[in-house]
Every structure is written in structure tokens, then in C-alpha cells.
TrEMBL record:
Single GO biological process annotation from the record: photosynthesis
Family as reported in the entry's similarity comment: Belongs to the heme oxygenase family.
Protein name: heme oxygenase (biliverdin-producing)
Record bears the keyword Chloroplast: yes
Domain of life from the UniProt record: Eukaryota
Localization: Plastid, Chloroplast
UniProt xrefs under CDD domains: HemeO
Gene that this sequence comes from: LOC111485249
One CC-aspect GO term: chloroplast
EC supergroup of this enzyme: oxidoreductase
Amino acid sequence: MASLNSISPSQSLFNKTLFMVPTSFSNPDLDSCFLPKRVLFAKNPVGISSVRTKVVPLISATTAEKPKKRYPGESKGFVEEMRFVAMKLHTRDQAKEGEKVSKEPQEGPVAEWEPTVEGYLRFLVDSKLVYDTLDTIIAKAVFPFYAEFSNTGLERSEPLAKDLEWYKEQGFVIPEPSSPGITYARYLEEISEKDPQAFICHFYNMYFAHTAGGRMIGRKVAEKILNNKELEFYKWEGDLSQLLENVREKLNKVAESWSREEKNHCLEETKKSFKHSGEILRLILSRRQ
């Protein structure tokens, strides 16, 4: 007769078997995770099976979301993003946030410029062509939201026409627009038809830059060659700060519907805007041809 203390093959198999026993979903120590307990039955010294448990946590099905990248100025609106990028493209002589190394004469301190009356006239002529082009594009409104920027009070075509008339009264012959102005005007026409984000970048930089650095340049040049005469180009009807704020709000509103990729594309166009406007600005230092 077999001994009562012997272990049958089935009992041996039982002792070696690993069972997975789920913990109840009603366990108050568990919230959204289900942690099963791995239960191991083993024979104790007196022949009675005991139970040892080991908690094996499961990896959550959801992973932490990657923090969203924040762009400089983004919390204040897209105009602040454009301003931030534009400031970085200035030299330290032009703006405290500037990072560009000065390479061209017009990138140095305005106080060191040597403007000419004829060169300044060419600058005004080419500037008028560009502002005329901006006005035409806005009036045409190939993209409906362009119309939001009609009659903002920042327009410069009429004031420039008055300044050119004043030049004419002084005995100067008004020249035809030169290559920098013609090239820029054509480029604006081209992108306005197919690339509204790029166009808005130029619109912003042309108007907002003129109200800041542009005014300072106009004042310094007038001191040197125009007997401190203030041109109409640097005068606005109404409160300029309020005019700027109105346009700023419209630009921010329009950009709300843009994707991040479209916003970035607009910001990347800033370099081209500076390139074209810089070539026109250089005319101030040009000599009689």
C-alpha cells in the first residue's frame, strides 16, 4: 500500500503550476489600472500548500503626451511672433535684440550715414511704387481676408505723392522707379496671388517697420540733408499707436485660422522681406548717376 506521505504525479504537477488569478475590479486600491497578481502555490514543510503572491504591474495603455513646442511670442499672438523674428534680423546698432552682423553701410548706425538728396529722392520713388502695389493688392483681395487691411490709416501712397510733389517744387526731376523697387513690387504681386502667408509677412514688415525704425531714419536724414523738414511720409492722421493696435488685432485674428506650418512659412519669409526693403533703403546712400 502506498505511503500517505508520498506525492502523486498529479500533486507534483499541481505544486509546479503557476496560476494567474485576477484581482477584483472593485478593489479600492485600484483606479484605472488593472494589476493582476501572480499566484504561486508551493508545498510547505508539513505538506500543506501555501500561497505566495507577487504584484506584477502592467504598463498603462496611454503614454504621456509630448509637451507642445511654444514659439517665442506665441502666447501674445502671431504678430508678436513676427516681431520677434524681425528683431533678430536687425544688427545690434538697429535694435537691442538684433543678432545680425553689420555688413552693409545702411546696416550701421544712422548717425554715421552720408545720405544724398538725390539718393533720398530715389528711395522715396521706389518706396511709393511698393506701397502703391500693396494698396492695389489689398483692394483686389484675391484672398478675401486681404480686405480686412483696407483703409487702416497706415497707407503711405498719398503722403509719398505729396513729398514727391514737394521735391518737384524744389526743382528736382522725379525719376522713374529703379530696379530695387520694381523687383520688389513684382515679387509682391506674384506671392499675393498664390501665397497669402508670405504676402502677409511683407505687409506687416513694410508698415510696422516704417512706423518704428523708418521714422528714426527719416528724422536723421532730414537733419542732414533737408534742413529738418518733416516729410509727409512720416505723418499719420489720428493716433498712430491705436492705428497699429487695430491692424495688430486684425493680423492676429487672421492668423488664428492658420496651421502651425502656415505660420512658420510666414515667419520664414521675413528674410526676403528684409532683403528687398534693404535694397531700397540702400538708395538713400547712392550718389548722383
